[in-house]
Specification:
The protein contains two helices and seven strands. The protein is of the alpha+beta class and about 120 residues long. The strands form three sheets. It has a three-stranded antiparallel sheet with strand order 5-6-7, with no helix packed on it. A two-stranded antiparallel ribbon has the order 1-2. The chain has a two-stranded antiparallel sheet with strand order 3-4. The structure holds zinc ion (ZN).
Length: about 120
């Protein structure tokens, strides 16, 4: 079976100090670009990136800072669309490179490169 797209969603919630729950749900769909790309590996990568993004929001970097107001509203609409290949560390999108039949994602960083894990 040829799998051409991967779609995932991640749900993350925790109980706040006032006993209300804060929940963030993210979903995205990614297209696989070559026949050799392992969709399961791609899905794992997406899960990792989504997880990082959600933790980033939860740690107070997103809007709301965990107020009770945010906890009672669907947080989904406040989150930006998570790009499939985006360096959270440097807030920079990765660019795809291909050479000798291999491909990878990276972005320029100073005199060198930051490569997607
Ligand atoms: Zn980077």
């Amino acid at each position: 079976m040829r799998v051409s797209t991967v779609s995932i969603s991640v749900r993350y919630s925790k109980q706040l100090a006032d006993a209300s729950y804060k929940t963030v749900e993210l979903g995205l769909e990614a297209s696989l670009t070559s026949n050799t790309e392992d969709w399961q590996e791609g899905q794992r990568t997406l899960y990792t990136q989504l997880g990082d993004q959600i933790r980033f929001v939860f740690n107070g970097n997103g809007s709301g800072n965990g107020t009770a107001k945010v906890a009672q509203e669907p947080a989904k609409a406040e989150l930006p669309e998570p790009p499939a290949h985006f360096c959270q560390q440097h807030r920079t999108p990765f660019v795809k490179f291909s050479k000798n039949g291999r491909s990878w994602w990276s972005h320029k960083l100073g005199n060198g490169w930051c490569r997607e894990a």
